[in-house]
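Exercise 7. Given the encoded structure of a 228-residue chain, write a plausible sequence.
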């Protein structure tokens, strides 16, 4: 896979080693508009890569540079997520402009890209995350339609646990402590729970802790979570 070079001026120097991959959707009406914005010096946003719906990959910022894709964010104690991550924008109109399924060619391109980056920097599955995971109060992307299972079955992301589930019967305070231990910013509990659900229980995103959420989270905190 040879990305199309489309340099963006929107970057600066990293302050941390690369340890994460952050997946976004573009949330704009067309891929052309998203590519233009990510290269616009006035916009002050960028990513390392953009993946079109037909699977074309554009390279915008060199991996050794700090692209501006994460904004105010937090994951597993890291607050300068831009410095620690590779950002991948995936063309999709998003919730504002007609959110839809991600085409097969696009998903395959994302898989190839994530696999190469993950191997290059020895990134753990738990650090391949969505924008909503690192910024739960602000973001929904890549959203509940993104096929995380297609990455997790190749060990490129954590699976949704489905086997050996047990309910720890945590109260909400204990659940939030566990969610924080897993990596989320829980300063706004409802937002954190919705982000967790959007990633690991996308069929019901209500911001309410329940037995299924407790079981999924417990399994994710154990070694080698098992999913389908």
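Solution.
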């Amino acid at each position: 896979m040879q990305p199309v070079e489309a340099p963006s001026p929107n970057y600066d120097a990293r302050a941390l080693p690369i340890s994460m991959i952050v997946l976004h959707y573009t949330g704009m009406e067309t891929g052309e508009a998203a590519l233009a914005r990510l290269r616009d010096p006035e916009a002050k946003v960028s990513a390392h890569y953009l993946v079109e719906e037909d699977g074309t990959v554009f390279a915008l910022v060199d991996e050794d540079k700090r692209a501006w894709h994460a904004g105010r964010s937090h994951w597993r104690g890291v607050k300068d997520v831009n410095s620690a991550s590779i950002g991948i924008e995936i063309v999709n109109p998003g919730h504002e402009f007609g959110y839809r399924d991600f085409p097969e060619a696009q998903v395959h391109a994302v898989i190839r890209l994530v696999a190469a980056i993950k191997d290059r920097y020895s990134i753990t599955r738990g650090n391949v995350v969505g924008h909503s995971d690192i910024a739960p109060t602000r973001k929904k992307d890549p959203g509940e339609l993104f096929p995380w299972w297609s990455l997790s079955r190749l060990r490129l992301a954590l699976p949704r646990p489905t086997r050996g589930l047990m309910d720890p019967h945590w109260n909400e305070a204990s659940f939030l402590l566990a969610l924080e231990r897993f990596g989320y910013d829980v300063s706004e509990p409802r937002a954190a729970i919705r982000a967790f659900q959007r990633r690991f229980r996308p069929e019901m995103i209500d911001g309410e802790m329940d037995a299924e959420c407790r079981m999924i989270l417990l399994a994710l905190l154990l070694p080698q979570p098992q999913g389908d």
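Remark. Residues 172 and 209 are 7 Å apart (CA to CA). Students should compare their own answers with the one above.
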